[in-house]
Amino acid sequence: MSQTAQTPSTSFHPFHPRTTRVGLGVGAALALMVVLMAAWEVKRGLLAAWPRLVGALLLLVSFSFVWWRLRPRPGYGALITPMGVTFSKPLGGEPVSLAWSEVRSINREGKARDTLVVHLTEGEWRLQARMFDKPGALDAVAQALEGHLPQRGYDA
Description:
Layout (H helix, E strand, L loop, with lengths): L10 E4 L3 H26 L5 H21 L7 E4 L3 E4 L8 E4 L3 E7 L5 E6 L3 E5 L8 H12 L8
Antiparallel strand pairs: 1-2, 2-3, 3-4, 5-6, 6-7
Helix pairs in contact: 1-2
C-alpha cells in the first residue's frame, strides 16, 4: 500500500487584539482626563496636585505605548510553515522561531477554552483568543498547528 504524504502549506494568522486595544484606548482617555484636571489644579497653585499629575502622565504614556505596540502591522502574528512556527511577541522584540522538533503537543485550556498552549521541549508558548479579531481564528491556528505535528502512535 502506498500513501501519499500531504505536506501542509504555509499559513499566516495575524494578531489583531481589537478588544484589548479598545480597553487601552479607554484607559488612555481616562488618564488624559485626570492629567487635565491635575494640570488645572497645578495651574491654580495646588502643590498636592503634582504627584497626581506625574502619576496620570505615566499612566497615559503606558496605556498609549501598549496601545501602539498592539496595533496590526505586517508580519505581526503566527506564521506556520513546513519547517516550523514563528510567533511574534506581543510587545516587541524579535519573533520566536521554533522548529517542529521543538513542539511536543498542543492543547486548549481555560474555562472557555480560549487559550492555546503549545508545549515545547523546554517550556511552553500561550496564545489567547483575544489576540485575534475573529472568534474562530484561534481554532484555525490550532488546526494549522496540528496539521504539522507528527502523528504519534499509541503504545500498549
